[in-house]
What we know:
mainly alpha
Amino acid sequence: MRFVEIIITALVVIAAVYILYKNLKKKSRGKCDCCSDVNCPHCTDKKKS
């Protein structure tokens, strides 16, 4: 049973690191990383100004 808990924890950590990496990569390119929608209101406000 302990092995299953370790596997689940590892999967959660891997998913979190992947999302962090993806967001940092987008941010370094100057893209919006707050959501995946192309019509994000936060991103369109930044583009207008």
